[in-house]
Design a protein that fits this description.
This protein has one domain: Rossmann fold (3-Layer(aba) Sandwich). The protein is built from 8 helices and 9 strands. The strands form 2 sheets. A 7-stranded parallel sheet has the order 3-2-1-4-5-6-8, with helices on both faces. It has a two-stranded antiparallel ribbon with strand order 7-9. Helix 1 packs parallel to helix 2, helix 3 packs parallel to helix 4 and helix 4 runs parallel beside helix 5.
Length: about 260
């Protein structure tokens, strides 16, 4: 099992990122917490400090690559990062009343969910490769495996992240670095709270964070839950497209505005 002493988590102010930070917090662990909500980050940092960790905060948007790179350089110089988790994400989709998400929302989701993850990974890679060790966790989604009619932008951004992560893992594993792709189903979060529709086999953010922590410590290549839904979506490309299209149309949902 891998031990992590210097960790960076994006999207750490709430939900899965905050729950993971609390789980990893322990004496001797340095935690870099990245998010947009300063007050929420301070609360997470206080909870981590109470567990003996040393928290560091960067209030920024992962779309701002230079700002994130500057924070990462400072943190890595002080305590070489051995785990970075790209968790920051946003979701749009069909709105109540049937309005489509539109081009601006498509762009925002790609910039946060995919490029925001790359803004975390790429600046850390040179130093990690020089050290010959380190781990990345990329929080994707079961929607990485199949586009859903009510969230094309979200699904596309997570599919891009999944493909990027698969390529990274194949490239980096021979050089001592681990890449874990995490594809969760439904779990409790502020983002999930805007969802109007069925949420099969949903779990708490804490339970999802426990699954992610186990996968990271094992150095797992992939981890997805719940397994029945993950298996069905992974196998869906083998079924006739018209059949799968008809089935996913029955999974209609709406996403409320923030």
């Amino acid at each position: 099992m891998r031990a992590f002493r210097s960790v960076v988590i994006t999207g750490a102010s709430r939900g899965l990122g905050a729950a993971l930070a609390r789980r990893l917090a322990a004496p001797g662990v340095v935690l870099g917490l990245v998010g947009r909500d300063a007050a929420a980050l301070e609360q997470v940092a206080a909870a981590c400090a109470a567990r003996g960790a040393t928290p560091r905060i960067a209030r920024l948007d992962v779309r701002d690559g230079p700002a994130l790179a500057a924070a990462l350089a400072e943190w890595d110089a002080a305590a070489p990062v051995d785990l970075a988790v790209a968790n920051a994400g946003i979701a749009a989709g069909t709105r109540p009343g049937g309005a489509r998400e539109g081009l601006a929302a498509l762009r925002d989701q790609m910039e946060v969910n995919f490029l925001g993850a790359a803004h975390l990974v790429e600046p850390l890679l040179p130093a990690m490769l020089a050290r010959g060790r380190g781990s990345f966790g990329l929080v994707c989604s079961l929607s990485s495996f199949r586009g859903l009619p009510d969230s094309p932008g979200y699904c596309a951004s997570k599919a891009a992240l999944w493909s990027y992560g698969e390529a990274l893992r194949a490239e980096l594993a021979p050089r001592g670095l681990a890449v874990t792709l995490f594809a969760p189903g439904f779990f409790d979060s502020a983002m999930g709270g805007r969802w109007e529709g069925p949420r099969p086999l949903s779990i708490s953010a804490e339970a999802a964070a426990a699954k992610l922590e186990r996968a990271l410590r094992r150095g797992a290549a992939r981890a997805a839950f719940p397994w029945p839904l993950a298996l069905a979506l992974r196998l869906s490309p083998l079924a006739p497209a018209r059949l799968v299209d008809a089935l996913v149309r029955r999974m209609a949902f709406r996403i409320r505005e923030d």
